[in-house]
Each structure stands twice: as C-alpha cells, then as structure tokens.
Amino acid sequence: MERDPSLRAVGWARSLPLGSGVKTARDWTREHLATLGWDRTAPDLVDSVVLAVSELVTNAHIHARSDAQLILTWDEECLHVTAHDASPRVPEQRHPDDEAMGGRGMLLIGAVADDVRIRSCPRGKDVIVCFGPPSPTARPA
C-alpha cells in the first residue's frame, strides 16, 4: 500500500524509572498533545489519553515492578501510546468487586481507547493503546 507522501508521523519517547511519579508521565503527555493543538480542540480526548498513560505507567511500576518506556506516535490516523515494561506477564482485565482499591486499569483503558493490543517482546512486553484523531467537529473548549 502506497502512503501519501504528505503524511508525516511525529513521535516522542520517555523513560520513566521505577521511582518516578506517574504525574511526570501525565504532564509529559499533556505537553506533547498540546503541540498537536489537542488541548484546545479536543480536551476530552487529551483527558482520555492522559488517563490511559497514567494506568499504563502505574501497571508497569506496580505490577511489572519495572521501569516504563513510554512512546507516543501520531501518524494522522491514530495516536499510538506504547508502554513497554520488563515483565513478560500479560496484563489481566479483572472484574474487581466494589470494595477493591485497584484492578480497574485495563478496564478503564479499554473504555476510553479505540484499540488495545499487547505484544510480547524478547525483554518484556508492549501495551499499545490507539486513539483516533479528534473529531472534525471538535471545537475549542
């Protein structure tokens, strides 16, 4: 399939050591989505992406006990949010009871994202979450 030569992808990557706060990942993500203008045109989408990033980095730090490598790639069709950690264990979507303090991360991600994929790697796994572009009718907040 031949791609449109005017199509340009942009991407950003950040390593988040185990001791770093998830707030760092959220702030970093918001900054980069602002460069796309989404903070003005699609603030609800930005909030959804930031929620997914928060859950992905939390999963890497808590469940995988690993640093997280976070990659954002925008190709004008999809914002790919990839979180890599060192654990080969695939995240499980649990159905926590009302009393549980956690266990809803993958459920939340599935609710806000257009697609979620998990790929095993030689040294861990990638969880890839895709978000479609802002609606053409999206208006500034």
State the assembly state of the protein chains. single chain
So what's the overall shape?
globular
Annotation, overall tally of beta strands: 5
Strand and helix order: EHHHEEHEE
Q: Strand order across the biggest sheet?
A: 1-2-3-5-4
Q: Mind summarizing the main beta sheet?
A: 5 strands, antiparallel
How confident is the prediction overall: mean pLDDT?
87
- Please state roughly what percent of the residues sit in beta strands, choosing from under 5%, 5-15%, 15-25%, 25-35%, 35-45% or over 45%: 25-35%
Distance between the termini: 37 Å
**Radius of gyration, CA atoms, in whole angstroms:** 15 Å
Derived structural class: alpha+beta
Count the DSSP helices.
4
What percentage of residues falls in helices of 4 or more residues?
Answer: 25-40%
What topology does this entry show?
Blueprint: E1 10-16, H1 22-35, H2 38-41, H3 43-62, E2 68-74, E3 79-85, H4 105-112, E4 115-121, E5 124-131
Antiparallel strand pairs: 1-2, 2-3, 3-5, 4-5
Helix pairs in contact: 1-3, 3-4
